[in-house]
C-alpha cells in the first residue's frame, strides 16, 4: 500500500483540512483529496464525513488513525535503519559499565548516543568488573568501562582513562582503625564484597583466605561495615562521604586499598562501526 496516501490521511487529520495537509506535503489540494479517496477505495471504508464545511473523521477513520500513525513511524524507523546500515552504523551495541564507575556524566553520554543514533539498539549492563570481563571473554560486549588491569587475548583493546582510588573501611569502633592493617590482621574477619552475577572473585579486591559476605549495593556495604559485621574495600570518594558512619583504615595489604585503572575496553571481534567509535570517543572525553 502506498504510504503517501496514508500520510495524506494523517496530515489531513492533524492539520484540520485537506488544504493544510496539501501545504504540509507540498502537494496540490486535489492530490490530497484524490489520495484519501483512493485510500478509502483500497480499504473499502469511509474515513471522512465530507457533508460539513470541513471533513470530519468517521468512527472507522478514528479507529484507523493510530494504526496509520504507527505505520508511518515504522516506515521512518525502517528508512533510518537502512540509512545507518549503508553508512556502516551497527544495529546493536552492548555497553558494560562497572557499577563503581556509573555516574550522571556517563548516563547523559548514553542519552546523547541514543539521540545521535536512534536506530541503534543500545543495551546497557551495569555489573562488577569481573562479570564484565567474563562477558567480554564470551564475546558479548562491544564497549566496556572496567577497573583494574585484566589480561585478555589480542582481540581486545585497552585504553587507560584514569585511576580510581580505593580504601579499606571498618566501623568507627573497630580496633583495626587504630593501626596500619596487614593481611594477617584480617584473617578471621569478614570482607563485605559486591555480588558477582557469575560467582567470580575480583582479583584486585577480594582477599584470599577471608570469609566474604556478598551484597548488591553500596548502601548495604556501608550499613554492614557501620554495624561492625565486616570490613570492605570501596572507592575512597564514596568513603569520604560517609565518615560519620565508617572509618578509613591505613593498610599494608599489597595493591589493595590503593589505585585501580579505569579501562575503556573494546572487542575487535564485534561490529566496530561508526556508532561504536562515537561512543568510545565520548566516554574517553569524560576522564
Automatic annotation (TrEMBL):
Keyword Transcription regulation applies: yes
Name of the featured protein: LysR family transcriptional regulator
Limits of the HTH lysR-type domain: 1-58
Record family assignment: Belongs to the LysR transcriptional regulatory family.
SUPFAM superfamilies listed in its UniProt record: Periplasmic binding protein-like II, Winged helix' DNA-binding domain
InterPro entries in the record: LysR_HTH_N (IPR000847), LysR_subst-bd (IPR005119), WH-like_DNA-bd_sf (IPR036388), WH_DNA-bd_sf (IPR036390)
Keywords per UniProt: DNA-binding, Transcription, Transcription regulation
Annotated CDD domains: PBP2_LTTR_substrate
